[in-house]
Design brief:
It comes from Aeoliella mucimassa. This is Dna-J like membrane chaperone protein. This protein is of the alpha+beta class and 203 residues long. It is 49% helix and 25% strand. It is elongated, with a radius of gyration of 23 Å. Bound molecules: zinc ion.
Length: 203
């Protein structure tokens, strides 16, 4: 019996540097070409043309449209910064809601942090509006989109902010501690690092 078929083969055709939207900074890439081959006994014999090309970030392995190589770092940085502010805002609300409806101290703390970070005044009412929008949000869906692109300082800033909100009412509940660990995990911190942070702020 003769066994024949087709198969896609990937090969690197070009490399360079680009602004990876997922890493949030300049990273090396490969352009990968996918070609279809006619196979005989599973051995690719006759090229049947190109099936497509894509760009792969060599740092995070994220795959993008080939055009991603031309992304403007300045525009991308601005976009990332906006996404980071959203992630910070929403994740603080998620942790404020961990122990039931957000109380005044929690809302004020979030308003203070957002004001400090953005340089424009956030009022408690702005925060209340956001609380409505965040019903059903989780740390996972708020932090994941930016986790890969954050520097150590950025990741630390998130944990500090979340902790300030959780501790705003003067006590840290088990549920809140659990959420801080889970945020640390999403951001790529070791459990030990979060433990150390928590004991440093306790004393
Ligand atoms: Zn990347």
């Amino acid at each position: 019996m003769i066994i024949f078929g087709t198969r896609g083969l990937n090969s690197k055709v070009e490399s360079g540097h680009f602004h990876c939207p997922r890493c949030g900074r300049d990273k090396p890439f490969d352009i990968i070409r996918v070609r279809r081959f006619f196979t005989l006994y599973f051995i690719p014999l006759i090229p049947m043309g190109e099936a497509g090309r894509y760009l792969e970030c060599k740092n995070c392995s994220g795959t993008f449209d080939e055009g991603a190589r031309y992304l403007d770092p300045e525009v991308e940085n601005e976009k990332f910064h906006a996404a980071f502010m959203q992630a910070m805002f929403r994740s603080m609300i998620v942790i404020a809601l961990a122990d039931g409806p957000a109380n005044m101290q929690e809302l004020d703390t979030i308003a203070d942090i957002m004001t400090n970070m953005s340089g424009k005044a956030f009022e408690t009412d702005d925060i209340r509006d956001m609380v409505q929008k965040c019903v059903g949000d989780s740390l996972d869906n708020t932090l994941h989109p930016v986790a890969d692109g954050l520097s150590d300082d950025g990741r630390g800033m998130v944990i500090h902010g979340l902790h300030q909100v959780a501790a705003a009412d003067g006590r840290l509940l088990d549920e809140e501690i659990k959420m801080l660990y889970s945020a640390g995990n999403i951001l790529g911190f070791r459990k030990k690092a979060i433990k150390k942070f928590l004991s440093s702020v306790e004393s």
